[in-house]
Fold this protein.
Amino acid sequence: MGPIIEISHRTADGGKSHSIKVPQFGLGVFLAPADGTCKNACIWALNAGYRHIDTAAVYRNEEEVGQAILESGIPRSELFITTKLRRTDALGYQETLERCDESLNKLGLDFVDLYLIHAPPEDLSVRKDVWRGMEKLLETGKTRAIGVSNYGPHHLEEILQYSKYGPSVNQIEIHLWLQRPYLIKATRESGAVPMAYSPLARGQKVNDEKLHSLSKKLGVTPAQIAIKWCMDKGFITIPKSSNQKRIIENLESLNIELSEETNLILQDYDEDYISGWNPTVDL
Ligand SMILES: NC(=O)c1ccc[n+]([C@@H]2O[C@H](COP(=O)([O-])OP(=O)(O)OC[C@H]3O[C@@H](n4cnc5c(N)ncnc54)[C@H](OP(=O)(O)O)[C@@H]3O)[C@@H](O)[C@H]2O)c1
């Protein structure tokens, strides 16, 4: 399962609320289709020792995540399930409550462990109401923690102005080729823990020449270096794979060690490479 870290929500008086423990390493299921692929990936991962799964309403595979949980026979209390409010569904207070209920129904769960706004709502005028809805979900136990995704420093500053509970995580694209020190600093300063999505740059960089030769030298795989770098930085890290062998390979990255010398080399891989979308720069 790997390390466990704590997340919490900053209160207006600077305190912490609703602190919970999170398995720092998990399985992402973006682009794992609901034709059995997602379910198999989750079952392989759970059998291998993963305890955290990151899905989203927009991935259209929450049902299969739920089926895998059920079939695994693992007690609910040992699992950590994250899902997200679709950006286009982030329309207001009531809508936020309803969309969470829909996700819970699909997952077959009474509560999720972490509920995220997938990206800053495009309509600025609803942002406060959406967050009020998120806070209500936290207070009523529909989720054990709330957070955001794809928030830039200005979005985090804005949300802290009106939140009763600040976001516990900011899920953002982070990897060797997009190290984002300024955004990580802003995230930590807001009281949130960075959650690294696309830690393999969506697979677009695992064949990178430099990384390949480094991995040969270290006797590990390129993906393992990329994942362990995120873990060592303290980010919640959720690589996706639908392949049983790679699911295990990725978990085994937790056992490798990256020396100080290697980390200095890896620091130079940063090239501001966005592999997907980048709503952190939106208004
Ligand atoms: N909040 C957001 O906006 C957002 C955006 C993107 C992603 N996410 C979350 O973050 C998770 C991870 O990000 P991601 O899916 O975009 O990309 P990723 O984890 O960086 O990369 C996944 C890709 O890498 C391949 N791969 C996995 N393990 C590998 C290995 N050991 N060696 C070589 N290739 C490997 C996968 O193929 P196979 O499946 O064939 O192994 C897949 O094509 C998502 O699944 C999702 O849960 C969130």
The CA atoms of residues 32 and 217 lie 32 Å apart.
